Amino acid sequence: MSLATPEGFRKNPSLVWQFYHYRRETALKAQPNPAHIALSSFSLPSIRHQIAPESTFTLITQNVDGLSVRADKQIQANEPPAADEQPRLIEIHGRLFDVTCTSRDCDHVEFNTSSPICEGLSGTEAHVAEGDLDPEIPITSLPRCAKCGSLARPGVVWFGEMPHKLDEIDEIAAKADLCLVVGTSSTVYPAAGYAAEVQHRGGKVAVFNLDRSKGDHDAEYLFLGPCEETLPRALGFTN
C-alpha cells in the first residue's frame, strides 16, 4: 500500500517501477483460468442468451492484469461476435500494461507489453521476488513517455485516485437484478459497495470466493471453493 500511491511514486519512482515491473513480468507469464473464460463466454450475447435469454451483462473488474481481456480474445477467436455484440468490460482500476505520461501538458497513454519495459528495469524482477530490491535506478533510466519523453508511470489507479467510469457503473448497478461477486475480499470501495446497491434495489447477489469474506452473509447465494471450479459450473459451462 505504500507503493500504490501517487505520493509513493513521487517519493521513489525507482522503487515503485521495480515493483510494477515485477508485476508486469508475472502477469505476462500468467494465463486466463476457467473462471476468466466462463465470464468472457457469458459476456457474449450469442452464448449468454442460451443460458439467460434477453439478458445483458457487464464485467466490472478490479484486476489490472489484463487476463480478462486475453480471455475475451480467446473466446472471440472461436466465436467472433457481431459488431453490436461486443462483450462489455470495464477495468475500474486501470491496466497494468498502460504507460501514462506524468506531464500534465501531455497525459499520453500507451499500451505496452514489452518485456522488459525498459533496459533499466531488466532483471530487477528477480530481486523484487526475493525481497532484495536493486539500488535506486536513475530517473533517466526509468520508463519514459513515447510522445514527449517525460517520466512515465504505470497506468493503474492508485489509492487516493478516482477509479474509472464510475458514472457508467452507477447506471449499470441501478438497473441490475443480479450481481456476481467473484474472487474479492469486498473491502476496497467503491467496488465493494455495488453488491449492496443491487440488493437494495431488489436484486440478488451471488458470491464466489475461496474463503469467507466481508459481506457474504448478506448474499442470497454463496459458492465457496476455487472460482475456476465453482463459477463455470454455476454459469452452466460444465456438468
UniProtKB/TrEMBL annotation:
Annotated localization: Mitochondrion
GO CC list: mitochondrion; nucleus
Matching SUPFAM superfamilies: DHS-like NAD/FAD-binding domain (SSF52467)
PROSITE patterns listed in its UniProt record: SIRTUIN
Domain of life: Eukaryota
List of catalytic residues: 93
Keyword hit for Phosphoprotein: no
Name recorded for this polypeptide: Unplaced genomic scaffold K443scaffold_7, whole genome shotgun sequence
